[in-house]
Design brief:
The complex is a heterodimer of chains A (about 400) and B (about 350). Chain A has about 400 residues and is α+β, with helices and mostly antiparallel strands. Chain A folds into two domains: about 230 residues, Immunoglobulin-like (Sandwich), CATH 2.60.40.1190; about 120 residues, Orthogonal Bundle (Cytochrome Bc1 Complex, Chain D, domain 2), CATH 1.10.760. Chain A contains seven helices and 17 strands. In chain B, the strands form five sheets. Chain B has a five-stranded mixed beta sheet. The chains are: A alpha+beta (about 400), B alpha+beta (about 350).
């Protein structure tokens, strides 16, 4: 048993050396950044974009954590294909990213109404990244690996642009980054939004002047009452910057779990996930567990990387995602306090603090899984929230 | 989940619907800068749609298993009513008073409508502020942890630095007592006048109440009238206890009132003008016991005997309705009122 555990941990931590070119297995994840002459301006209609190839990125609604707006949840129950296309250019100093996504209606926040939400888009970068650092949790980072976010939103009076740093769901804190610019434009005839972000490659500690830059995308549809955690989110993707070396060690880490030999048996994976994970998680057609007992895995395949899923199964405490879930469930079986307050239901607390002050996941580590079973489970989970036909191809 | 909990008791038998509380609150907190539509304190007519209209149908709170329920963010124009002005400048010079704006709904749209036909019509007033719940569902719903409950008094507040105006709190509050300010894109709510409380003063709505219907004090202050009405006499009940938030505004339910009249104008003995099941739909299963206690004390008074409960409810001294200082040692309560007073003097 111990030998198996060691083998699994090694497989996660130290991908075997390969004869393939660095980053070869990442082709489907990469957005090529084109070198252009400067200066770059936040103009969604700039002619330069016509010559830049677009990469389509699948998105899926954030469902890991359920929020409690009836209208937003009703929209979640009516799934719509979500995707965006990404173009990116650099002049060597600035990076410009153009996002384009379908949305029939232009929704703006309003000063005279309360239940109107502005359409919005965001870019997310790991605050720090490189060989030896795991990627932050894709949903706003985590306690150990923070993210930098750039948001553009259709406000009541023009585009609102803001940047924020986050260390987990609900933690985003506005960051002063005046050099980051953005603009949005809705095209009613085609039913599309375009948002362009322009930022220096270096913003504070966040330095993107590397060969491979992890990036994730999110889009909010105001008509679906999306705001905050109700959004459509991508997995970590990669920008490939022109004229910069790809660090082979970093590329090898990003390839973890993507090698042909990591692919497992899909049917076996479903059997294992349905038999074990579905006791607490909602996943695929298995939705029997009480809602909120564990993160919802409905769209996990479009938002997680294989390496993250492997780690989550083998070492669930490696990434602890903060969540308000515990406060949303009362334990009616235990006595109330002096002021009549019900205690929190322990079953819905996703992570506890151990005697040493370390956060420990409630999920038991499945460190002893045979490698073939682990591969099968990850392979099956990566099919969850499968992209609509054609998504992921370069048009 | 605070160490102590401030609470308010409102005696609905004494509320005359004068809205002095509403105005006291509005002029202090909500007459400007995106808050014009908000009524942190409102007085609605029951039966009626309330403010915002049909707020009881909008979800929120906790279900019977203790899980947070989803809810709806009300529409300003449809549910709260868009604030309007009158042409008072012209009216001062003799013009007819005309409302400016489209009048479709407002905070007191169905005032005094009630139910039933004369001579058996009935209604009563229900003043409402934030309940500063022990299990606040606005707090539970906020994904950013921007809402907190003060440990020293249980007052529920929005951290304006953390709030990003996402409105999940507005959806989750079953009483719809937290409001979105579209002008600053933040949620705002009744703050129990905490700057006044910190100076030993009751909230403005309670201080200004001309009917003396409001008591303010700590639930654990056994010498306080709030504690006595809620815990000792059990005549003050939370609104919609089934919402599972443990509201900390407590209501003395209205007595069923004079009997109804038959077709010949004769009183129908034993009839209830205000149906007790309706009161139970608002204040839960404690209604019958509370009403029986009050009626028994009324009978004692009618028989010429004393009634401590009625003395409290009459509120001879306004100042005794508010106890915001340190609690008296519970042991002193046993000594009775006179003893407690004497010891307070010694304590000074």
């Amino acid at each position: 048993m111990r030998a198996v555990l060691a083998a699994v941990v090694l497989a996660v931590a130290l991908p075997a050396p390969s004869t393939r070119a660095a980053g070869e297995l990442l082709a489907s994840e990469i957005v090529e950044v084109r070198q252009v002459p400067g200066p770059l301006a936040p103009d969604p209609g700039a002619p330069l974009w016509a010559g830049v190839p677009a990469r389509e990125i699948p998105l899926a609604p954030q469902r890991t954590l359920r929020l409690h707006d009836r209208a937003a949840n009703a929209a979640l129950a009516e799934p719509a294909p979500r995707a965006l296309s990404v173009r990116a250019v650099t002049d060597g100093r600035l990076l410009a990213v153009l996002l384009e996504w379908p949305d029939a209606t232009e929704d703006r926040a309003r000063l005279d109404e309360l239940e109107r939400y502005g359409d919005a888009a965001a870019l997310q970068f790991p605050l720090r990244f490189g060989p030896g650092r795991r990627l932050p949790y894709v949903g706003m980072g985590d306690g150990e690996e923070r993210v930098l976010l750039h948001l553009a939103r259709a406000g009541a009076e023009g585009t609102q642009v803001r940047s924020a740093v986050a260390a987990g769901f609900g933690s985003s804190t506005r960051a002063d980054a005046p050099a980051v610019q953005a603009a949005m434009r809705h095209d009613r005839a085609h039913g599309t939004w375009r948002a362009v972000f322009v930022r220096p490659l270096a913003v504070g500690a966040n330095d993107l002047a590397r060969g491979l830059v992890p990036v994730a995308f999110a889009v909010w549809d105001g008509a679906r009452h999306e705001r905050g955690g109700n959004k459509a989110l991508s997995a970590w993707k990669l920008l490939r910057l022109p004229g910069r070396e790809v660090d082979p060690a970093f590329a090898a880490e990003l390839e973890a779990g993507r090698r042909p030999e990591d692919r497992g048996d899909l049917a076996r994976g479903k059997q294992l996930v349905d038999g074990m994970c579905a006791a607490c998680h909602h996943v695929g057609d298995r939705r029997l567990a009480r809602a909120g007992l564990a993160p919802d895995l409905t769209a996990i395949g479009l938002q997680a990387t294989p390496a993250y899923l492997r780690e989550s199964i083998v070492k669930p405490s490696a990434v602890i995602v903060p969540s308000p879930n515990a406060a949303q469930h009362q334990d009616r079986a235990r006595p109330r306090d002096a002021n009549g307050a019900f205690p929190r239901a322990e079953a819905f607390v996703w992570a506890r603090t151990d005697a040493g002050g370390k956060q420990v996941s409630r999920m038991p580590p499945y460190a002893a899984l045979p490698p073939a079973d682990l591969n099968a489970m990850v392979t099956y989970l990566m099919t969850q929230g499968a992209p609509p036909a054609g998504a992921g191809r370069t048009p | 989940m605070s160490t102590r909990q401030l609470a308010m008791v409102m005696d609905l038998n004494k509320c005359i619907g004068c809205q002095t509380c509403t105005v006291a609150c509005k002029t202090q907190w909500t007459n400007r800068n995106g808050r014009e539509y908000m009524y942190w304190n409102n007085v609605e007519t029951r039966p009626g749609t309330g403010y915002p209209s049909r707020w009881e149908t909008m979800g929120g709170g906790f279900d019977e298993k203790g899980a947070l329920r989803e809810g709806t963010v009300p529409s300003r124009s449809a549910d709260y009513g868009t604030p309007w002005d009158f042409n008072l400048d012209e009216a001062a010079l003799g013009a007819e008073v005309v409302a400016q704006g489209s009048l479709k709904n407002g905070p007191n749209w169905d005032e005094d409508a009630g139910e039933g036909d004369f001579p058996n019509s009935w209604f009563f007033y229900l003043p409402r502020i934030c309940n500063h719940c022990s299990n606040a569902s606005c707090l539970a719903a906020c994904p950013r942890g921007a809402i907190f409950k003060r440990d020293q008094d249980g007052v529920v507040l929005v951290d304006q630095e953390r709030c990003e105006g996402l409105r999940y709190c507005v959806a989750a509050c079953p009483y719809k007592k937290i409001y979105f300010n579209p002008k600053i894109s933040r949620s705002e709510k009744c703050i129990f006048c905490f700057p006044r409380v910190e100076k030993g003063l009751p909230p403005a709505c309670a201080q200004q109440c001309v009917g003396r219907i409001r008591w303010v004090g700590y639930l654990d202050d056994e010498a306080g009238q709030v504690h006595q009405l809620v815990r000792k006499w059990e005549v003050a009940l939370p609104l919609h206890p089934e919402y599972g938030t443990q509201a900390n505004v407590y209501y003395v339910p209205p007595l069923p009132g004079p009997p109804k009249f038959d077709a010949h104008g004769k009183p129908i003995p034993g009839s209830e003008r205000i149906p007790v099941p309706y009161l139970e739909s608002l204040f839960g299963p404690g209604v019958k016991k509370a009403l029986a206690t009050i009626e028994a004390e009324l009978a004692k008074r009618k028989a010429g005997k004393g009634s401590e409960l009625l003395d409290t409810l009459i509120a001879f001294k306004h100042s005794e309705m508010f106890r915001l200082g340190e609690p008296v040692d519970p042991g002193l309560v046993q000594l009775g009122r006179r003893g407690a007073k004497a010891l307070q003097v010694i304590g000074r």
